[in-house]
Design goal:
By secondary structure, the protein is an alpha+beta fold. It has one domain. The chain is built from 5 helices and 9 strands; from the N terminus they run αααβββββαβαβββ. The chain has a 7-stranded mixed sheet, with helices on both faces. The chain has a two-stranded antiparallel sheet with strand order 2-3. Helix 1 packs antiparallel against helix 3 and helix 4 runs parallel beside helix 5. The protein is globular.
């Protein structure tokens, strides 16, 4: 299940965080590279593309498709030239992912708001904040945003992943489209793509 693989791979990529140097901790590029590795490893389906902004041979290739990361079921895993044509058309959006490592609540919530607008089996928000207290305030606001968004449906699922300063790793919550808590430890072991 994609939800479980995303969660497991994020945990794996950040398990050694205490060993990171100050330069790495402060580098959003470093965090993003870790997330990219986790999300790429989570994709086990030959008919699913993971799209994000990338560089090939030093040249920017804008395969980011609306969100920081998006899992699209298409006709093939190879993005090719990035366009949707022939057999490579969008059939389903499995997951959309936004990430924010600037420890600023407004920036985190701005990125989360993009997920409210998306149509996907799973919507994932990954963030870092300066303290657990600040993270808890952001999570409360995320839950409020979900529950007050009038176009939400209860069947929608939001995986919220944040750096937990108590465990020096990521913690996870899974909410439904009404803001109700589905799973305290993130993804269920069955049921999600």
């Amino acid at each position: 299940m994609l939800c479980n693989r995303i969660q497991e791979n994020i945990s794996e990529q950040f398990k050694d965080m205490l060993a990171w140097g100050g330069k790495d901790i402060e580098s959003s590029t470093f965090w993003t590279t870790k997330i990219k590795t986790a999300l790429e490893s989570a994709n086990k389906d030959d008919n699913v593309e993971l799209r994000y902004t990338n560089k090939i041979n030093g040249n920017s290739v804008n395969w980011e498709f609306v969100y920081d990361f998006i899992y699209l079921r298409t006709g093939k895993k190879d993005i090719g030239d990035g366009y949707f044509e022939g057999n490579n058309i969008i059939r389903r959006v499995l997951a959309i992912v936004e990430s924010e490592f600037n420890p600023n609540s407004k920036e985190i919530l701005y990125d989360f708001a993009k997920l409210l607008l998306g149509k996907a089996d799973l919507k994932v928000m990954i963030f870092y904040h300066s303290s657990n207290e600040a993270s808890n305030q952001v999570i409360s606001e995320i839950r409020r945003m979900i529950s007050t968004f009038t176009q939400s449906t209860v069947s929608e699922q939001y995986l919220v992943c944040w750096f937990d300063h108590n465990i020096h790793g990521f913690s996870f919550l899974l909410f439904d489209g009404g803001g109700g808590l589905l799973q305290e430890n993130g993804c269920p072991t069955t049921g999600l793509t």
